[in-house]
User: Fold Dephospho-CoA kinase from Lentilactobacillus kosonis.
Amino acid sequence: MTKIIGLTGGIATGKTQVSNYLKSLKIPIIDADLVARDVESKDQAGLAAIIDNFGSDFLDANGELNRRKLGNLVFSSKIELSKLIRVINPFIEAEIYRQIDYYSAKELVVIDAPTLFENGYNSIVDEIVVVYADPTTQLARLMKRNQLSIADATKRIASQWPMTIKQELADIVFYNSGKFELTKQQINDWLKKEKFKE
Assistant:
C-alpha cells in the first residue's frame, strides 16, 4: 500500500530544498506547482477556465498566461485568490490523482504543495509534513529570492495560512531556519523511523 505524504510549508521556508533532497533519495515527488503550470499552459483547459473567469487581459502576446499580472491580482485580494483556487483546482487535482495512480507500486509518494491546506489537498494525503522557518528568516529569504520589498514580501506571506496553524495541523515538522545539514538529519531520522530508509 502506497503511503502518500503531503509536503508543505510557507513561502521561502525551504520546502523545495526538502523536496529536492527527497527526490535525490529516489522518492517520487508530485510537484503541485509544476502540475499547475502544466494545466495552465497554452491550449490547456485549465488556462481556458482562467481566461473565462478573469478575462483575456491575463494572456500575453503569445497566448500564454501572464503569471506576474495574475499573481499581482490574487496576492492583493483574498477574494480573487479564492476565485482562482476554485477555478483551477479541479484540473490540478485530476492530474495529481493521475500521478498517484502512476506511482501506485511505490511505498512512499510525496505531494509537494505550498498551498496544501489552502487548496484542500490535505484530504488526499495520509500524513502531513510541514517545513518551518522562523518569520524573520522566511521574510529575508523571500525578499532576496524574489527581489521583493518588505511590503510585497509581507503581503505574499500573509496570503498563505499562518505557519502556526500549519504546524498545529502537521504530523511532522522539519525545522529549517539554519543550515540545511541540520534539516537533512531530521529528514533522515524520520525516514528511518518510518522504515523508508536503512
